[in-house]
Every structure is written in C-alpha cells, then in structure tokens.
Amino acid sequence: MLTIKAPAKINWFLNVLGLRDDGFHEIQSLMQKITLYDVLTFAPSEELVLETDSMIPVEQNLVYKAALLLKNIYCIDKGAFISLKKNIPIGAGLGGGSSDAASALIGLNQLWSLNLSSEDLCKIAETLGSDVPFFLSGALSFVYGRGEKLMPYAMGKTVNLLLVKPPFPVSTAWAYKEIGNLKFKTLASVNCIKRQISGQVSELTKKANKVDNIEFLINLIEKTEFGEITGTVSNDLELVTIKSFPVISEIKDRLVKQGAIFSLMSGSGPTVFGVFQSAENAENASIAFKDYWTTVAQTIIE
Hints:
Layout: E1 2-19, E2 25-45, E3 48-52, H1 62-73, E4 79-85, H2 96-111, H3 118-128, E5 140-145, E6 149-152, E7 160-165, H4 172-183, H5 214-222, H6 238-244, H7 247-257, E8 262-265, E9 272-276, H8 279-286, E10 293-298
Parallel strand pairs: 3-4
Antiparallel strand pairs: 1-2, 2-4, 2-5, 5-6, 7-9, 7-10, 8-9
Helix pairs in contact: 1-2
C-alpha cells in the first residue's frame, strides 16, 4: 500500500490580468504549499475504485478523473483501490482538489510502474485543472499563464499561519466569471502580458510596482516584514468575493486585530490566512474564530 500526503496552498498574491482567447483568465500568482494535507492511499485492484469521505460524487472527483485519464491514455489494464481522506475544506481557495489530482497522478505512476517523467505528468495535469501542475512541482512557485506555467523559487524560512474559513464554499468558476464581468474584455493576445526576464519577474502588476521582483518579495515574507508590501500586493478575486460575502473582509480585519502581521484571502476564497510571529500566537488568535473552521499551519519550504 502506498500513502501520499496532498498539501493545500495559499496565494501570496493573485493578479488577474485579463480574459484570454481560450476562455481562461491570464493570471500571475506566488503560490506556496502549506502543512494542511489530504491523505491518499493506493492499493492494487482489478477495478478502479475511489473510496472517500468527500461530498463530491466519485465520478466528479478530480482524483477519479485523474486516474481514469491516466488509465485511458496509457491503456492500463489494471485497476486501483484509492482511498481519499479529506482534511482540506472543499471550495475553500486552498487547492485541495487540484492537490488531490496531482497526488493521484504521482501515486498511480508508482502503483502502475509507468515511469512517467514530471513533464509527462504535467501535460496530463494541465488538462485536469490550472492549479494541478503546481502541485507536481516544488513548494513555492511563481505561476502565470492560466496558472499552468511555473517558475520555481526557494524560501529558507517557514511562516506561521492561521487559516479561517466561513461556513460556505466559493466556486472558482463563479469568481472568475464575476471578475471578468467586472473588469475585462477579451485580449487579442496573451503574449503581450507575459513578463519573464532572466529568471525573475520585473513587474508583478501595475498595483504592485513597488515590488521589483519575486526574490525581494520572498525575502520580505521570510523576515515577516509585511509593512513594505501591505497595500501593494493583493488578491484581485477579493474584489468580487468580498462584494458577495462581506464577512471575508471582516475576517481579514479581525485577524489583524488578533495580532496577524498580514492577512489575505487565498485563491477564490473564502478562506483567509493571517501571518503570525509564532504558532502559539496563531493558536491563541484562533479562539476569536470559534464560529468558523480554523487551523494553524506553516508554509512548506523543502
């Protein structure tokens, strides 16, 4: 039996730049894995079976879709028994489904002895979801395109987080549709907004022009010096998600009142994370959010 832990993620910023010709949105984000995990186990079986405590029907679950896709592409005549234990909330902006799908690809690559490369798995991952390739990479990446293109980075120090999620999910598709209606027209070409110069990004967004490059931002995060970036890096999807769910803004403010150095909504929400100087401080702050799902986590640095 093979067991794999599928980590959640946060977005240190998320810039939605415009609507592409293929219907996806062009984005830029700095994404990092965190110590909140779903757990997948794999065992040989004649049939393809997914057993899970998830509320999502099996046929719609990204783990099952990933397994079926891999099986069909490579004409696998074997099955697999897959058990999925959910700890990452569904529809939370933490990438749980995408991480599960990536872990399914990794696990079945081993179980079925396919010996596929990371590049091979990433090509399959792109068809499952924009965030799935990120979970096949390292702990920290600048992601761009529709989210499937990665530029790995390193961080030398973990950061303590308190995650707070109100009792409702938010659909990623809904959030992007709403921000598209609010802000953008179709782009004639997406190439004009891709910015890569010598392995670093020269500009994150027009909003974030005080941040010269990703290394500088990472250095500030490591030092928990958020004063220099607060108000310059942001999550564009907050524009629409907070408009419909103002409690998210209230959670952000309450996190700061409870001692968070920095707070931001992750992904399409509704989860908000706060950065704290210590895990103990984060635990103490969680007492103020008894009506919500909360967990203390750390960034993964590998």
